[in-house]
Amino acid sequence: LAYAGLDGTGYTLYDARFDVVQDQLSQEFQLTGDAAGERLTWLLGAYYFEETADNDTFICVGTNRPQPGPGGLPIPLPGPGQFPGFVPGASTRNDGRCLSLTNRLALENESIAGYANLRFGFTERWSAFGGLRWTRDEKRQSIDSGFDNTAGVATLFRLAPLGGTAPQASPLNPTWPQPLNYEESWSELTPRVGVDFKPTEDSLVYASWAKGFKSGGFGARATPLAPIAAFDPEKVDSYEVGFKSQFLDNRVRLNGAVFFTKYEDIQLLILDQATLNFETKNGGDNELKGVELE
Fold first, then answer.
1. Are 197 and 241 in contact (CB under 8 A)?
2. For residues 240 and 290, what is the distance between their CA atoms, to the nearest angstrom?
3. Can you list the pairs that 264-272 forms with residues at least 24 positions away whose Cβ atoms lie under 8 Å?
4. DSSP for 92-105?
5. pLDDT for 230 beyond 50
6. What angle do CA 203, 207, 211 make, to 5 degrees?
7. Count of alpha carbons within 13 Å of 177, Cβ hemisphere only?
8. In sequence order, what are the beta bridge partners of 195?
């Protein structure tokens, strides 16, 4: 539970409360072993994750009419260059009433995966490793939003208040033109391979390639203009060549790597020009490269 005065003033102009209740369960099982005189080591695993979350956001758009100050002094009229409706003077607080905007988001996430890893030593110095993981993610989302102005809050510009309540993106609003429930699933096979070489007992040189996967999802802001847009999974290919070493009876450690990472359908938070909402969207392909020394 969190509160924020988003207007940055002593007035209740634009305040928010965020209430999140989240439960999750995860479980992982592993089985390991070796063969061929311990030259071959293997690992098998299974993973399960489930999560439910209720995310309630309450926006309070407050009245712009402050309470009179001590002695019932009147509220002064705006002076030259002052914003109408936000008038400094004898009073410093408004009456605390809200035009309440609510957005309730219910989420259910489930992920299952199975994986295997192998490592084989050709000699005491050379070895190769490989792995494969299968992942399936499923996400479900429902939305319920509306506003409540039973307090009769005036707007910032002192227009006549709109009274009552009105559901927006809600099961209580039969005229809402877009879906309220969304469900999607994604699955992916992600391999990993590489080789190791040990020049000495205290050093290692390696090269590897791995493929990664981050599932897609949905936005959280409903609009009558279009359904909530889903975004696709983000995929990545990672290449790395490096070394690890220790010196002076393991008192000094020196590691280094050269890496190259290629993203496909990278997920970015952007401002949608059509809806003026911040939304996660796929931003195409991207590359990241560099050198690391520690």
1. no
2. 10
3. 264/234, 264/235, 264/236, 264/237, 265/232, 265/233, 265/234, 265/235, 266/234, 267/214, 267/231, 267/234
4. --B---EEEEEEEE
5. yes
6. 135
7. 4
8. 128, 207
Q: 261 and 287 in contact (C-beta within 8 Å)?
A: yes
140, containing H or E segment? strand 126-149
Structure tokens at 167: 């559901």
Q: Which residue has the higher pLDDT, 74 or 107?
A: 107
Which neighbouring-strand residues pair with 35?
40
Q: Residue 76 gets which letter from DSSP?
A: P
- The share of the chain scoring above pLDDT 70, in percent, equals 78
Please provide the average confidence, as pLDDT, over all residues in the chain.
Answer: 83
CA distances from 118 to 35, 130, 169, 191, 294 (A): 11, 5, 51, 12, 28
DSSP code for 75: P
- Go through 152-171 and write b for each residue having 16 or more CB atoms within 10 A of its CB, e for each that does not: ebbebeeeeeeeeeebbbbe
DSSP, res 153? -
Residue 10: CB partners within 8 Å, gap ≥ 6?
Answer: 92, 93
Closest CA to 117 of 108, 106, 129, 126: 129
Q: For residues 87 and 69, what is the distance between their CA atoms, to the nearest angstrom?
A: 13
Distance (Å, rounded) from C-alpha 27 to C-alpha 43? Answer: 17
d(CA 93, CA 13): 10
Q: Contact at 8 Å (CB) between 127 and 68?
A: no
Listed residue (188, 220, 194) closest to 207, CA to CA: 194
Q: What is the mean pLDDT of residues 128-145?
A: 95
Which DSSP symbol is given to 39? Answer: T
